[in-house]
Amino acid sequence: MFSAGAESLLHQAREIQDEELKKFCSRICKLLQAEDLGPDTLDSLQRLFLIISATKYSRSRAPSPRWTGR
Q: Hey, how many other C-beta atoms are within 10 angstroms of the C-beta on 44?
């Protein structure tokens, strides 16, 4: 159904630990605060979408107190 590469990415996304996910979300927040949103930002957002989509159980993340909602 999926290629070997896609299967590998799905497996990695399903197995990500909470601490790794927190670090990754922190990195994405920093990327989104930059004035120049480059290809790294888009790649990271796509990976986050894959992780959330592939996770078998629900996760909750407390809102960041630094979020300004711009």
A: 17
Tokens representing 29 are: 């927040």
Token match 């957002």: residue?
Answer: 45
List, for residues 10-43, the tens digit of each pLDDT value.
Answer: 777 778 788 888 898 899 999 999 888 899 999 9
The answer to whether 7 and 51 are in contact (CB under 8 A) is no
Distance CA 30, CA 15 (A): 24
> How remote is the C-alpha of 19 from its chain's centroid?
12
Residue ranges of the domains in the chain?
4-54
**How many angstroms separate the CA atoms of 33 and 21, rounded?**
18
